Amino acid sequence: MSASKLFTPNARRLLLLACLLLASLALAMIAACGRSTDTVSPGVSPAGGNLPTSGSSVVLVGAGDIGDDGREATAKLLDRIPGTVFTAGDNAYPDGTDADYAQKYNPTWGRQRERTKPTPGNHEYNTSGATGYYKYFGSLAGPSSRGYYSYDLGDWHIISLNSNIDMSAGSVQERWLRADLAASNKECTLAIWHHPRFSAGKHGSSTKSQDIYQALYEAGAEVVVVGHDHNYQRFAPQTADGQLDRQRGIRQFVAGMGGASHYSFSSPIANTEAYNTDTYGVLKLTLGPGTYQWEFVPVAGKTYRDSGSGTCH
Known about the structure:
By secondary structure, the protein is of the alpha/beta class. The chain contains 7 helices and 13 strands. The chain has helices at residues 3-6, 9-33, 71-79, 98-105, 131-137, 172-183, 210-218; strands spanning 58-63, 84-87, 116-117, 149-153, 156-160, 188-192, 223-226, 232-235, 251-255, 272-276, 281-288, 291-298, 306-311. Strand 6 (188-192), helix 7 and strand 7 form a beta-alpha-beta unit. Helix 6 packs parallel to helix 7.
């Protein structure tokens, strides 16, 4: 007996509809398996809106040493540069108090608060426990009063660290960093903290972050951004002990030109590729799949520029 005689016309129509429904469900499941998602690392709230997803270039822009004389001029640069804003510490002078944030930071860089990923500096800790910083930024600063956190931005993993607390090998922060790096599935990594591992400026190079730098180096990180010295410096890729390493080294930027009075120096140190000691500005980083571009953007009336590009390890 033929199949057509086994079913009535109504039954055949129902069978056809059921087959179409099953085929649609199968296609939907296949599409879901191949869809990429944007993630935020454990313990981090994605406050400030949705972060860009993988596969496209994103902008990370900011500076350190902000809340002083040049803060309004650099804030105007941010008004016209889209993307995620970072701070590299010393955001509100002189002591990072509630009043300092309300009177100096909030009217200027605070215009971009909801798209800012901050980092604390030593001036924040002039106030006990950096309470002004944590109160002002709230969940944007990561877990309360800890001072370090991470998030994904496009194809990059971004880590904000706290150089005002223990960063040595075996410390809580260093062990957290190693676990965070191991859990990341991003090809490219950038870290931000305040005190520079390498600098020719007034404060000079600091060994307190050497173990953190080493952990990042071992994980194949690309870029470190710091502040503290009130100038701009760009270094060639280096190891944690300052050896030139163009294959796997980390490129460090000193981006302390956010608004505090300038620190000059007469001679750059080893592996310095560019520097400026008299221009306020912001560091604009365009982060793409496997690549990054940097640009020093000066305030109005200034002409110093620095730009270039690199690839991920």
